[in-house]
Design a protein that fits this description.
The protein is mainly alpha-helical and 108 residues long. It has 8 helices and no strands. The longest helix is centred in the first third of the chain and has 22 residues. 22% of the residues are buried.
């Protein structure tokens, strides 16, 4: 139990860190077409997490996904009731940030 609690806390910290990183993205440096990529286009995210994102949060684009407040994710048990779901969520957000940042990561 203790290990599970620590793992979940680490995932929550990673989630908060990623969302903070997303806040630092320069919106004017990201093409509008890239901001409008649907969540369903995330290749590394399982269908179940994409569905949870859409149904629970009402989020359709990766830009909107990375700008959901951390607390909103944490209020839904579908994300917080297992390490697997939280890990999938964190991975989806990480992929979304990498997709949005695209060229800017290569230039930094």
């Amino acid at each position: 139990m203790f290990k599970d609690h620590n793992d979940m806390n680490e995932l929550k910290e990673r989630l908060a860190s990623l969302l903070h990183k997303a806040d630092e993205l320069n919106p004017s440096a990201i093409p509008t077409a890239r901001k409008k990529i649907p969540v369903w286009k995330l290749e590394g995210a399982p269908v179940r997490i994409k569905s949870m994102i859409g149904n629970a949060l009402g989020v359709d684009t990766i830009w909107d996904l990375v700008h959901v407040p951390c607390g909103k994710f944490l209020q839904y048990r579908c994300f917080t009731n297992s390490r697997a779901r939280m890990s999938e969520l964190v991975s989806a957000i990480d992929e979304a940030i990498l997709t949005l940042a695209g060229d800017t990561i290569a230039s930094n």
